[in-house]
Design goal:
single chain, alpha/beta, Four Helix Bundle (Hemerythrin (Met), subunit A), Rossmann fold, 2 domains, eight-stranded mixed beta sheet, 52% helix
Length: 310
């Protein structure tokens, strides 16, 4: 499968097809041979809310359409194009690739997210991208209580040619992170990525664990971690909002990564997250392959979501 720009855009459109069909199918049924009146706008809002865009963005998009074409006949294709432009306007401010600052070496990335969100896979894919840019990368298996998480990270470490620091089962995650940062500093590594546990049902335990990791790495580098990524599974839809709230309560989240868009009809939640939190969306994933995580592009995402060529 093509890994170039055109190939990625095709995969993005294909990956968002379930989300797109959920929204555009409703729009096509609604706007066939109809004028844009208030009843139609109310129905459009419902379609957008059902597509997981959230109440605020749904109202904003409907109002924008009304401002341009109220009481006029409008085709579904015109609606798709207008909404795609408006969605892109909402998303542009948060579309920000993850940049590694070469003056912060090693650049420490703390990666959070609930178990099953695609966190460990995301670390592996990012490591591969950094390695392809010529950067040296070390991974720290900080989810020490789940043997499967450690094994999965080791597999991704081999695939991306990045060494993985591990401890014995149940090792203190903060101690492991400290040792990993010591090693990364001594080896002059460009990037250190730290995996963490994601047991949200034990929020107090998890909060204490994350706070301790941050506190301990600051003993070696008071500017670390330089990025704190929250990895989100797009298939959970509106529940993503409460997950962001929960992690923001625990830790200073600096950016989001959205995974599993290809398995979801709820990709519209990216818009809800952008409007609610304004956190940078660094990357989106539409597959299991090592190249299936790419920087988030607002316009390409918006057009794909509305069933248009990116």
């Amino acid at each position: 499968m093509s890994t170039g720009k055109d190939g990625w855009l095709l995969r993005l459109k294909s990956g968002l097809s379930q989300s797109s069909e959920r929204i555009t199918g409703g729009i096509t049924g609604l706007f066939t041979k109809r004028k844009l009146d208030q009843v139609t706008l109310d129905d459009l809002e419902e379609i957008l809310i059902a597509g997981d865009l959230g109440v605020g963005p749904a109202m904003k998009l409907s109002q924008s359409l009304a401002d341009q074409r109220f009481d006029q006949e409008i085709t579904p294709e015109e609606v798709h194009a207008i909404l795609a432009d408006e969605v892109a306007n909402i998303l542009e401010p948060v579309a920000a690739p993850l940049e590694v600052n070469p003056h912060q070496k090693p650049f420490v990335i703390l990666v959070c997210g609930v178990n099953g969100s695609g966190k460990t896979t995301t670390i592996g894919k990012l490591a591969n991208q950094f390695r392809s840019q010529g950067k040296s990368v070390i991974l720290a298996a900080g989810d020490t209580f789940r043997a499967a998480a450690v094994e999965q990270l080791q597999i991704w470490g081999e695939r991306s040619n990045a060494p993985v620091i591990t401890g014995n089962p149940g090792t203190d995650p903060a101690g492991l992170a400290f040792a990993a940062l010591e090693q990364a500093e001594s080896e002059g590594a460009d990037v250190l990525m730290i995996d963490t546990a994601g047991r949200l049902q034990n929020r107090k335990d998890l909060m204490a664990e994350l706070e301790k990791i941050v506190r301990v790495v600051k003993k070696l580098d008071d500017t670390a971690p330089h990025a704190t990524l929250l990895v989100m599974d797009a298939t959970i839809g509106q529940n993503a909002l409460s997950q962001v709230e929960a992690f923001k309560d625990m830790i200073d989240v600096s950016g989001l990564v959205m995974t599993k868009l290809d398995g979801s009809a709820k990709g519209g939640v990216v818009i809800a997250l952008a409007e609610r939190f304004g956190l940078p969306v660094h990357a989106v994933g539409v597959g299991e392959g090592i190249d299936d995580l790419r920087p988030f592009e607002a316009r390409a995402f918006a057009r794909s979501l509305m069933g248009l060529d990116a």
